[in-house]
């Protein structure tokens, strides 16, 4: 089972034999989810009936998103505290299905489960490479399997602006045509975005859109050059381009490279904030979830004092529209950041250069922090030096074991667990072009992030160890294959065919 449940008790009695006569009863949405999973895994459709051996219900008791699962020889019962809890219980049930010499069975077990953290996310960068709506939906389906409940969409960056907005149509007319490496660009219409948000919600996933500001804004400057400074081409930017064989950024020209930190907005011009009000207001109206992400990372082309002014004004605009600000941890240095803003920490498991202090500043302001330590849960890192795609800057390659062996409560000294909102695994897409690429880098390491976000603390149970995790991941190979997930068959995992 991935992620590991809070409590599991083996009943020590006969299992439930899942035959073609088994019927599924109860909540129709949950029943539909289970039939889909069982059909993919077993190639057999089980009937949904008013009464059945597999009962799926919501009883309204217990913690949010929690569920109780019980299996014996007579049948299976999954009871959710709410519809999300029932949905997650169904995911666990599908993972318990076993093929044996005597047929298909579900072991006798009793599970009481609830998430450790309320925010459990995955980020998809659609700015460096743009992915069509079916691909984004596939990512949502994969996240739901692992009980993740937030999809962070990185919609804008130097290489492209990916959401059409009626108030500022030039953003996509001029800023969406390219991607890294000269690949085709693209953008989502408002109807596309609504479709993604609704599809995610049907799987109990909240969409968190990001407009990255005030850096990572070269594409914005193509559309509205009056609010953007010329690129700040530092020796580091030039050296990066030489290593990667990329041209440096130039004002008025689309950027297809992968350097960061060279772009900035005009911090003291009213036109900048007029644009932000249009963009953030229209995006807020499109987004039913509580969060708007305003970036704030790697603004090396912005003077620190100007950065503080910008974060204060931009976060106030988000608050005006009734949304909670999310920002990368650098924004914690801005004293005027809107109170209650959520910080997202992307430093290392062992913080460097005062990154932890900036993250703690969010908690000092009465808010909480999302943990995305780059050397543990950045899915775009290579597994090892030989990995076909991916990067290595976050302390070198990230093995599956390293992606697992970290403890959220120990990352930022002085940050109490109560100040941790959750865990998110970002997938930046400089080297990622297809769903197969996404799968290769995300699986199985996304399972590590999911377990850090959902399950009890590291070492608190016999399941929360690397040795247990690698065995449980191996057991998911059949289900992942059945669902078409092109996961990386890491040699760290004892996949059944390699035993």
From TrEMBL:
PANTHER family: BETA-HEXOSAMINIDASE, BETA-N-ACETYLHEXOSAMINIDASE
Enzyme class, broadest EC rank: hydrolase
Organism ancestry: Bacteria, Bacillati, Actinomycetota, Actinomycetes, Micrococcales
Alphabetical list of InterPro entries matching this protein: Beta_hexosaminidase_sua/sub, GH, Glyco_hydro_20_cat, Hex-like_dom2, HEX_bac_N
EC number, as in UniProt: 3.2.1.52
Catalytic activity: Hydrolysis of terminal non-reducing N-acetyl-D-hexosamine residues in N-acetyl-beta-D-hexosaminides
Keywords for this protein: Glycosidase, Hydrolase
Gene3D superfamilies: Chitobiase/beta-hexosaminidase domain 2-like, Glycosidases
Family: Belongs to the glycosyl hydrolase 20 family.
Pfam families for the chain: Glyco_hydro_20, Glyco_hydro_20b
Domain Beta-hexosaminidase bacterial type N-terminal: 2-114
Active-site residues per Swiss-Prot or TrEMBL entry: 298
BP term (GO), one: glycosaminoglycan metabolic process
Organism: Diaminobutyricimonas aerilata
Coiled coil: none
Protein name: beta-N-acetylhexosaminidase
GO cellular component terms, A-Z: membrane
Domain spans labelled Glycoside hydrolase family 20 catalytic: 117-456
MF terms in GO: beta-N-acetylhexosaminidase activity
């Amino acid at each position: 089972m991935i992620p590991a449940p809070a409590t599991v008790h083996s009943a020590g009695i006969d299992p439930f034999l899942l035959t073609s006569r088994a019927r599924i009863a109860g909540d129709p949405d949950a029943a539909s989810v289970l039939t889909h999973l069982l059909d993919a895994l077993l190639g057999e459709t089980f009937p949904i009936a008013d009464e059945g051996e597999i009962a799926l219900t919501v009883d309204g008791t217990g913690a949010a998103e929690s569920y109780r699962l019980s299996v014996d020889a007579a049948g299976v019962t999954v009871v959710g505290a709410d519809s999300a809890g029932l949905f997650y219980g169904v995911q666990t049930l599908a993972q318990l299905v076993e093929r044996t010499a005597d047929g298909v069975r579900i072991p006798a077990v009793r599970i009481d489960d609830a998430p450790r953290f309320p925010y459990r996310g995955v980020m998809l960068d659609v700015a460096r490479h743009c992915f069509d709506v079916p691909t984004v939906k596939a990512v949502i389906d994969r996240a739901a399997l692992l009980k993740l409940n937030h999809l962070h969409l990185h919609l804008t960056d130097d290489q492209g602006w990916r959401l059409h907005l009626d108030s500022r149509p030039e953003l996509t007319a001029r800023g969406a045509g390219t991607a890294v490496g000269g690949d085709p660009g693209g953008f989502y219409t408002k109807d596309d975005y609504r479709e993604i948000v609704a599809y995610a919600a049907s799987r109990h996933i909240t969409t968190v859109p990001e407009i990255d500001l005030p850096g990572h804004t070269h594409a914005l400057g193509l559309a509205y050059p009056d609010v953007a400074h010329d690129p700040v081409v530092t020796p580091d930017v030039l050296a990066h381009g030489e290593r990667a064989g990329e041209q440096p950024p130039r004002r008025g020209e689309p950027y297809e490279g992968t350097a960061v930190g060279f772009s900035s907005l005009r911090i003291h011009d009213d036109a900048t904030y007029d644009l932000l009000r249009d963009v953030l207001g229209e995006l807020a109206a499109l987004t039913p979830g509580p969060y708007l992400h305003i970036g704030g990372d790697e603004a090396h082309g912005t003077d620190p004092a100007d950065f503080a002014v910008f974060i204060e004004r931009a976060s106030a605009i988000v608050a005006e529209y009734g949304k909670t600000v999310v920002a990368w941890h650098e924004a914690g240095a801005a004293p005027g950041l809107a109170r209650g803003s959520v910080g997202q920490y992307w430093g290392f498991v062992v913080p460097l250069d005062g990154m932890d202090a900036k993250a703690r500043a969010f908690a000092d302001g009465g808010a909480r922090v999302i943990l995305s330590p780059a050397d543990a849960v950045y899915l775009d890192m290579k597994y090892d030096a030989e990995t076909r795609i991916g990067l290595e800057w976050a302390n070198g390659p990230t093995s599956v074991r390293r992606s697992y062996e970290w403890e959220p409560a120990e990352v930022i000294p002085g940050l109490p667990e109560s100040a941790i909102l959750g865990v998110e695994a970002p997938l930046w897409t400089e080297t990622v072009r297809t769903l197969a690429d996404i799968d290769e880098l995300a699986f199985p390491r996304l399972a590590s992030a999911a377990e850090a976000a959902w399950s009890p603390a590291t070492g608190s149970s016999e399941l929360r160890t690397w040795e247990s995790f690698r065995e449980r991941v191996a057991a998911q190979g059949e289900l992942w294959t059945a669902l078409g997930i092109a996961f990386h068959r890491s040699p760290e995992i004892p996949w059944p065919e390699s035993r």
